């Protein structure tokens, strides 16, 4: 398992403030432990302030690159953590939304947890897909044409989703597996 992703490059997103720390650190550690190199991508350069439970300040993390400096062409997979404020900030940024959409257009694996699926709704990539999220997002998923289910981890043609931090072990295992498998043929489904 240690070299499962050897030679793979993964982008993990972090908002300038508000990303749920454990949903950022654990998937990052999982893909790195599997051999992938990881770039932390954000709206702004410098440091990003993570949160614990949406309301408590956590650690700060260095941003490797901004959205204006990257392309989905540069990566084998994408991870989008949650955090209510973080996910909302990312979905409000056109460059972030376009970057996410590009992974679907290229049928590359994407892992999204908790409130992160808000970014998928904004990118208009959930139509016809089955996914999960934090329960309060289910109406957003349904309204965007997706099929929301209440399960620990859901995989739909390279898209891995989970509900909350309790699901992180299953989420990380499936993210590593899907990135290891590579591109998925049915990933791009537009309206």
How are the SSEs ordered, and which strands pair?
Elements: E1 9-13, E2 17-20, H1 21-33, E3 37-42, E4 47-52, E5 56-62, E6 65-66, E7 77-80, H2 84-91, H3 94-105, E8 110-113, H4 117-122, E9 130-131, H5 138-143, E10 147-148, E11 153-156, E12 159-162, H6 168-181
Parallel strand pairs: 1-3, 1-7, 2-4, 3-6, 7-8, 8-12, 9-10
Antiparallel strand pairs: 4-5, 11-12
Helix pairs in contact: 1-6
Shape: globular
Strand content: 25-35%
Taken together, the total number of domains comes to 1
The CATH top-level class label: Alpha Beta
* CATH level-3 fold name: Rossmann fold
Keywords:
191 residues, alpha/beta, Rossmann fold, 7-stranded mixed sheet, 3-stranded mixed sheet, 6 helices
């Amino acid at each position: 398992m240690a070299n499962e992703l050897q030679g793979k490059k993964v982008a993990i997103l972090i908002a300038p403030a508000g990303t749920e720390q454990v949903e950022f650190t654990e998937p990052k550690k999982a893909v790195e432990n599997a051999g992938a190199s990881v770039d932390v991508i954000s709206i702004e350069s410098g440091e990003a302030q993570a949160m614990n439970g949406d309301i408590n300040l956590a650690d700060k993390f260095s941003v490797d690159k901004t959205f204006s400096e990257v392309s989905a062409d540069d990566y084998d997979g994408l991870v989008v953590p949650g955090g209510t404020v973080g996910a909302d900030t990312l979905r409000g940024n056109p460059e972030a939304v376009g970057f996410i959409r590009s992974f679907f257009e290229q049928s590359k694996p994407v892992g999204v947890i908790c409130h992160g699926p808000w970014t998928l709704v904004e990118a208009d990539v959930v139509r016809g897909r089955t996914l999960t999220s934090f329960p309060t997002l289910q109406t957003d998923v349904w309204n965007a044409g997706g099929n929301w289910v209440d399960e620990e981890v859901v995989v739909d043609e390279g898209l891995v989703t989970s509900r909350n931090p309790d699901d992180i072990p299953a989420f990380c295992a499936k993210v590593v597996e899907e990135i290891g498998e590579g591109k998925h043929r049915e990933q791009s489904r537009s309206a």
